[in-house]
Amino acid sequence: MSNRDYLKDKKRIIVKVGSSTLTHPETGHLNLAKLDKLVQVLSDLKNMGKDVILVSSGAIPIGAKAAGLKEKPTDIAIKQACASVGQATLMMIYQKFFREFGHTAGQILLTKDIMDDEIRKKNAENTFKELCNLDIIPIVNENDTISTEEIEFGDNDTLSAIVAKLVQGDLLILLSDIDGLYTDDPRKDKNAQFIPEVDTIDENLLNMAKGAGSKVGTGGMVTKILAAKIATEAGIDMIISNGNEVKNILKIIEGREKGTLFKGIKIQ
Ligand SMILES: Nc1ncnc2c1ncn2[C@@H]1O[C@H](COP(=O)(O)OP(=O)(O)O)[C@@H](O)[C@H]1O
Ligand SMILES: N[C@@H](CCC(=O)OP(=O)(O)O)C(=O)O
Question: Residue 185 sits in which domain range?
Fold first, then answer.
């Protein structure tokens, strides 16, 4: 019996997938095979009776390709235009793939200030609740047309933690292009050590987390640790795991030692 056996009982699971997982690193084009596998695994979680919410990045890089841009855009307004195209493309593909596995997806575009306004917060809560009641998988991204915070800082990580809190989730899984948190960015430091479990998020831990190591990723580990702080303070466990092996999601739910586990703080 592993000490992660209790993860088997998690009912409401939020999965966040980053741009670096959804695209081919060499070309920046959408990795359709991986997306297909991701949708299959999430559909399987639904079939197990879990509630599944997906927070998906990727609108900007996918839209940039669709618009024929050669380089990753840096100008905010161009990024917003790309997000507009890419978001529609992403949803079209998600909807098609989920239908193939017998499920239906719904789109939710949010801004992070949702938690500051009681009426908007309630409206968002109601929408998530009804989608879950209807067995529909909500797919969330930031509304890049009206909010540029995330485009600038690459922050679907903290958005996913806010969503986890909003829907009173049981487990948040962040899929990235790396196995989890290391003592330093392993792309730059060969001596970096893997950290399987984190109980306390302190200054020391924050110092270990560096920015994005790839061309498509934006937030790096900094925003993932910030997400962990929001989730764990709300009593929600969070795991950073490698999205290159999508079946890791199922292994996590089986209680196997995959990724870095941040333990939710027990609320008395
Ligand atoms: N301490 C660390 N441990 C692991 N990865 C780190 C660390 N510091 C920085 N990174 C970088 O963060 C990257 C993951 O973040 P990011 O590129 O934003 O991906 P995503 O698109 O999945 O959000 C890793 O590929 C790695 O290069
Ligand atoms: N809203 C943006 C997400 C930006 C972002 O957080 O990206 P990532 O660091 O890959 O999770 C998009 O869809 O491209």
Answer: 5-262
